[in-house]
Design brief:
It is built from three helices and seven strands; from the N terminus they run E-H-E-H-E-E-H-E-E-E. By secondary structure, it is of the alpha/beta class. The relative contact order is 0.28. The chain binds adenosine-5'-diphosphate (ADP) and magnesium ion.
């Protein structure tokens, strides 16, 4: 059951990353975080801040053209999925690929989760839903709903 839905305004990418770091501190292996919002709203920026806080040191970049990236150099293995490209249609083997990313030993962040609808494996492990909205310029509204 959602217990909180706090909404915060940020004025820079750094502020959004700091919010993400705060959420990251509450995450455990097996947790899935869904990150929604329009193009450029800051989804990848949010994931970058969370991944950094989980100890990932290598650059965190958008996985749009690969669907998933894995980061193994942090305190917990991290998967970063961007399902935007799945809107064009899932190949037969891709659902299994996603299964591996949303594994019990990893923390996973999923951009464009709505593209998968209910078909995303592991969705019962959703720990938080993050929504980002443009407020003009560098301002964003960031809503974090924890499970
Ligand atoms: P998305 O993954 O949602 O398409 P990105 O995180 O890739 O978005 O891009 C967001 C862009 O907006 C980045 O260039 C980032 O530096 C910029 N930006 C400016 N202000 C903010 C803010 N308050 N929060 C997040 N990103 C911001
Ligand atoms: Mg992105």
């Amino acid at each position: 059951m959602p217990t909180a839905s706090p909404s915060t305004e940020t004025a820079s990418a750094e502020e959004t990353e700091a919010l993400a770091a705060g959420l990251a501190g509450t995450l455990a292996p097996g947790d899935v975080v869904l990150v929604s919002g329009d193009l450029g709203a800051g989804k990848t920026t949010f994931v970058r801040g969370a991944a950094r806080a989980l100890g990932v040191r290598v650059p965190v970049t958008s996985p749009t053209f690969t669907i998933a990236r894995r980061y193994e150099d942090g305190r917990v293995p991290v998967s970063h999925l961007d399902l935007f490209r799945l809107a064009e249609g899932l190949e037969d083997e891709e659902p299994e690929l996603l299964d591996d990313e949303l594994a019990p030993d990893r923390v996973a962040f999923v951009e464009w989760p709505e593209v998968a609808g209910g078909g995303l494996p592991g969705l019962h492990h959703v720990a938080a839903r993050v929504h980002l909205e443009h407020l003009g310029g560098d301002r964003r509204r960031v809503t974090i709903e924890t499970a």
